[in-house]
């Protein structure tokens, strides 16, 4: 803190001799009383001084030409900076009571009469100097207290932030633990069902009906496991900003119609009434990601709507937006949970029985995908048991002209020959059996070298190649097949558990025609093979 500034005393007198006498007298006590003396020879000069400096007291001569002492005092009092400065009038005569009242009304704090008695002047001046020093000390203490208070406020804010951060870490840790518990549950249930179905299929006395039911269980639970893995990978990519959208103009209404047709055809909405009102609404989007949004919202409605409930899906263009609405009359959402619906790992119910299933990441993924398309999603509910409404708004574009390319006719019953290269004996054998059941000629190889040898000996029309092969990986197999004229024309499909954009790019650079992420259903794989060949 800077040192104390010595209080100033302003002496105003038009007479040079009187001014010199007063300032000389005051200088005698300046060091003892710790003040500084400033002089002015007119009212105007006094005004300039009070605008530049603070003063402990002003000694002002009453009888001055031009602007007398009373007028000078009145002018000083009109300035906010100087309004509180005490003024001692110096006069050569005894003022009557009326004159004193007038002086006090114009700011007078006291009077000193000439001839000046030094002891009286010293006593009066010392009072105001001491007051100025006390005021300065008090001001400094107030400033120090304010600084200390601010330091305490800063410390309190820092401690509050640290507590909030610690609570956030604790909540995140708790959410992580709950998520891992849910993940274990969601993985073990399908695996248990698949294991039981596989054991059942291995029994010698199994009937055809039981075998069909067991196979259906394996297929459903495999789809469930695949969905869990896909959601985890998609959310990880979305949260890290690694999702690259393959945008193109598309009719949101048509896309939703196709998606709902799949639900109806597969019977996944068989226990609910699924209605739709779908108008044309064009957007610039990634069809796969938009379909993912629609599927997640419909799945969410199915999950939280009891059998017999109604799910309404609508698409329309409103102004510059394409609006998708998924409405259900299910269990609804409590008001306190509405702000958290799109949080990662959030579920409306977290009961121990986990009857609704899922990891609680679907809606978080939906929000991220919608935001990547420049849109927004909102949810509303009138409360528990009153259903919920999810509304997606995407930027609309003008309708695009769609021309379907002509597809070459395929010879009825013709199926391309296949070469399956995979080091997993069980996986390779099951895929080969499934493809042969669909009418394909399938040969197998357990590693890259034997796969290349098989391809050179009898080139297939399509080769399905696993990337994670021992010794020589799938990328190298593809490069070698492309380099050899005898095998360069084979259609190559990469099969891998890695689905990042960089993995797709790497597969295409190695010479693959297509990159597929495991697991792939037999129906989809057959459609892709037929389309590619």
Automatic annotation (TrEMBL):
It catalyses: ATP + protein L-histidine = ADP + protein N-phospho-L-histidine. PROSITE patterns: HIS_KIN (PS50109), RESPONSE_REGULATORY (PS50110). Its EC number is 2.7.13.3. Pfam families: HATPase_c, HisKA, Response_reg. The modification 4-aspartylphosphate is found at residues 61, 466. The keyword Phosphoprotein applies. Residues 8-129, 417-533 form the Response regulatory domain. SUPFAM superfamilies: ATPase domain of HSP90 chaperone/DNA topoisomerase II/histidine kinase (SSF55874), CheY-like (SSF52172), Homodimeric domain of signal transducing histidine kinase (SSF47384). Keywords: Phosphoprotein. Residues 182-398 form the Histidine kinase domain. Signal peptide: none annotated. This is histidine kinase.
